[in-house]
Amino acid sequence: MVVSCPSCKAQIRRYDKQQTDIRQITASNRQLSRLLAYVKGVDFVTLNERIGVPKKRKDMTGQLWDYQLDIANRLQDSKYLWILKAVGLGITECCLRWILYKAMTSDEWTGKQVPIIVGPNINLATKLIKRIRRIFENHNIFFDTKETFVVINGVEIECFPSHHLDAVRSLESPACIYISEADFFPIGQQSEVRQVSERYITKSNPHIIMESTANAPGGLFDTMSNEQDSIYTKLYLDYTLD
């Protein structure tokens, strides 16, 4: 039968696209289930071997470095980690992969949330979640969610700009709060993001990961580096590690 009505043709195209999208989502969900089964119960190194180790942009070679493994090991022993880093060390990638490790290899975090807080720019939030999406796209897994949000094994991972902290205040049960490049937040937001994060210690007692390169004297990281009896395990990672 030949359809000549323009509006009918448009409806058919929409229907065909919807059916294609449904098939792709169904196939993607099956692939995600297979991947989760494949990494169930493995350690951090094995997870990265199975999902693909991070690659450095300089030469596209891939491996986990000793200092990245040290971060993962410290997060096993410490709830609260503070990292003052040099640029180009892959610390953000390492932290994202540790979050995936906890989300994918067991059900400990299932039903919980992982807020990731970045600077006051929605594009930063989108880019960070894209880094997670790219790992899964290499396995033909695609997420039908908004650009700043993914769900993996029932763990809700969402990225928030630092000027939208009201949404972070109302989370039900965060398992981990990851704050990236905190020393570059506007001064008022630096203290606020710390308060918002640490208030959950008495509620769900999440991991708190706070990392940044150094910005200005008198900022959050300058202040925290001089704190005595801090709850945070502190790591100083300089450029010689690159």
Short description:
The protein is of the alpha/beta class. The chain has eight helices and seven strands. The mean pLDDT is 90.
Q: Tally the structural domains.
A: 1
Q: How many β-strand runs?
A: 7
Shape: globular
Euclidean distance between termini CA atoms: 65 Å
Helix content: 40-55%
CATH superfamily: P-loop containing nucleotide triphosphate hydrolases
> What's the helix count?
8
* Strand adjacency order, main sheet: 3-4-2-5-6-1-7
What is the CATH topology classification name?
Answer: Rossmann fold
Sheet/helix structural class: alpha/beta
Q: Which spans have pLDDT < 50 for at least 5 consecutive residues?
A: none
Q: Roughly how many Å is the radius of gyration?
A: 20 Å
Determine and state the CATH class. Alpha Beta
Round the mean pLDDT to the nearest integer and report it.
Answer: 90
Instruction: Kindly estimate the percentage of residues that lie in beta strands according to DSSP.
Output: 15-25%
How would you describe the overall organization of this protein?
By secondary structure, this protein is an alpha/beta fold. It has a single domain, classed as P-loop containing nucleotide triphosphate hydrolases (Rossmann fold, 3-Layer(aba) Sandwich), CATH 3.40.50.300. The chain is built from eight helices and seven strands. It has helices at 6-39, 44-51, 66-77, 91-104, 122-137, 166-169, 187-198, 220-225, and strands at 80-85, 113-118, 149-152, 155-161, 176-180, 207-212, 233-237. The protein has a seven-stranded mixed beta sheet, with helices on both faces. It is globular and about 75 Å long. The mean pLDDT is 90.
